[in-house]
Write a structure and sequence with these properties.
By secondary structure, the chain is of the alpha+beta class. The chain is built from five helices and ten strands. Strands 1, 2, 3, 4, 5, 6, 7, 8, 9 and 10 form a ten-stranded mixed sheet that branches.
């Protein structure tokens, strides 16, 4: 049951698009990472987070599609309930000049639903092999719906995607996340099953990007 909660949460953390800006450079973004595992073409790292027993996770892997097509999948909010497992609701609440605010609800079926509101930012810039896409998100529950009976609120959620083209139809994707799972799940269990959830995020995106509509949008853009 706990594994399904974690997997569901990590599926839900793909960000939503907003207006492109210049790339940001977070401090110490590449320091302190320790290799945890490598499976199904995805390498996963973790590092401690100051003041918390929850760990930060980062995963990197190749996706056989153009970076623009992968970005379209991540931004395809209307389709989330069809290809993101456990996702029962995802809706845009507000679009600002530099970000969007969205509400998401997941249903692991074997326990209470989880929900959260995110503010997501996006940037893109020319790379040596094509356009690089980067977006990051953070908790924004204050801007979302009030807590609902029977639904556990996720209070902490932040992360990012970095999509770097390595060829016409090849993207090196890096996914980072730091989040709680809501409820009374111990940190060591949450950290352990995060590995499974992250791998499934990559599997879902790799499968969805094969849909013809994403490649058509890139060719016509």
């Amino acid at each position: 049951m706990k594994q399904r909660i974690i997997a569901a949460l990590f599926f839900a953390l793909a960000p939503i698009t907003c207006i492109a800006t210049e790339p940001s450079k977070p401090a110490d973004v590449n320091s302190g990472w320790k290799l945890v595992t490598e499976r199904n073409g995805v390498t996963i790292y973790s590092r401690p987070h100051s003041g918390s027993s929850l760990k930060e996770f980062k995963a990197a892997g190749e996706i056989a599609a153009a970076s623009g097509a992968v970005s379209q999948v991540i931004e395809d909010v209307d389709a989330y309930t069809s290809f993101m497992p456990y996702m029962t609701e995802c809706r845009l609440l507000k679009r600002d000049s530099d970000s969007v605010i969205s509400y998401q609800r997941i249903s692991p079926k074997v326990c209470c639903d989880r929900d959260f509101t995110l503010r997501t930012y996006k940037s893109s810039w020319p790379g040596t092999a094509g356009t690089v896409y980067s977006n990051h998100w953070e908790s924004a529950n204050v801007f979302g719906p009030a807590k609902k009976p029977g639904v556990v609120r996720i209070e902490l959620c932040q992360g990012s995607w970095l999509l770097e083209p390595t060829g016409a139809n090849e993207t090196h994707a890096t996914y980072s996340v730091y989040t709680d799972t809501g409820g009374l799940i111990p940190a060591f269990i949450a950290n352990h099953f995060s590995l499974t959830g992250i791998g499934e995020v990559f599997a879902a995106v790799r499968k969805q990007v094969k849909e013809p509509k994403y490649n058509l949008e890139i060719k016509s853009g």
